[in-house]
Design goal:
single chain; mainly alpha; two-stranded antiparallel ribbon
Length: about 230
Amino acid sequence: MPALGVVGWARWFWRQLTSMRVALLLLLLLSLGAIPGSLIPQTGIDATKVEEFRDKHETLAPLYDKLGLFNVYSSVWFSAIYILLFVSLIGCIVPRTWQFVGQLRGRPPGAPRRLTRLPAHTTWRTRTEPEQVREAALALLGRRRFRAHVVGDAVAAEKGYLREVGNLLFHIALIVMLVAFAWGQLFKYEGNKLILEGDGFANTLTQYDDFKSGNLFTPRTWTRSASP
């Protein structure tokens, strides 16, 4: 076997990553990874329940800490699956979109000289003039939503572009959803404050009892005060 080298292995890895099979596998792993995030208490959502879980399960809690199950959506393994899925979808969608645009701009290929080369074909004889036959074929294919045009003395037609449009729109919507999820995780912030009746509150970081934010969140300089 010849050695692939660094470039060869990189190309092989990229082909595998951008294949539809790997994208579906990563999507399945992402769905499975979200299960413990829904069943196990998360530190970013309710730290009190996490502490209660630690007190009740002294054996499982250290294992969950090592696996990052108390912070599933910010763990290394979940982020790795998320990023790989994102890259896989982009690497799969961009070439397909470019190829689809090229197909839309082009015309259906002409008929072969020998119809026997086609997997499905039939023949018949008619006394109608060839021009009338071509016009009738163009009209019939147009009513059935085929893209048809005359190539020499034959009519070429194709159909099925809307199916590919649906596939592309689905994958683009999935990419948009992943981007929105990542954006929300990076710029989000959550704060808790216990306010007693008669007390006031100013919207500053020092006023919160518990405050958590994403990696790209920056606090604003303005404040907002309120009182019950």
